Amino acid sequence: MKRTALFLGSGLLLFVAFWNLVPWHLQRFWGASGYFWQAQWERILSTFEDKELILFIAGSGLIPALIFWTFSGILLVVDTTGKLNFISRYRIQVGKNEPVDPVKLRQSIYTVLFNQYVITCPMLVALYHLLKLWADPCHRELPTFYRFLQELAVFIIIEEVLFYYSHRLFHHPTFYKKIHKKHHEWTAPIGMISLYAHPIEHVVSNMLPAIMGPLVMGSHLSSITVWFSLAIINTIISHCGYHLPFLPSPEFHDYHHLKFNQCYGVLGVLDHLHGTDKKFKQTKAYERHVLLLGFTPVSESIPDSPKKD
Length: 309
Fold this sequence. Notes:
- The chain has 13 helices and no strands.
- By secondary structure, it is mainly alpha-helical.
């Protein structure tokens, strides 16, 4: 734990030390467009006057949900039909989910919908009321660009720590069979099952790591909406089963679904510190765990080793 704290603390210090190296054109863009976004936000506030809770649920829940079903829906077309070869050619586990089992998929969708609306919505209502105790998530003034970057750094660190340890806890035999095994029914994951989990796991491993950052920082709704949207996009990519060009590599988490006892985290930082990625680092999946900057699938540019007779 001391080593983990030292590593994360050093990373945070480096982030602060290089704070002034944020690309100047991003700062100029934010400054130039800030008045536009502020005006749009004030119009939204006027529309939802005296209805802040509804606005908060729409921003923190509805927008990420729309992103989730749009992105995972496109991938589902490939998973269920086998068409859209320009996507399917990037499949990681070849021969799996070609096409996906419709009965298994239907059952998974029911669970995802339950988690999104029966579990997530009440937690967002609770988050709103907790934030109101010491902050104003719908404040009239939008946060500055610097403030958002500060919050984003804290969000990422908190998510990595809470997700890693809660996820690893759910792999303990006491909890795995009754709770986490549900998520691992998909040894070859697809984007939609990123939220397919036992309700207890959805609360502890999916929701809490994401909402604790905004709660600690007393964040504005705009920051929360962007953060939740980025988090949902990232988890879809991690589960999608396709190593697509110009998107973060999903090889790390795909390997976790394949082998179960490796790669528990989001960024891989704590896996490195705790040695829970040693076997992964000895595989072709690790060699392929890079940002694909071309259109040749990594399975072709880094092929499997020839099988020994």
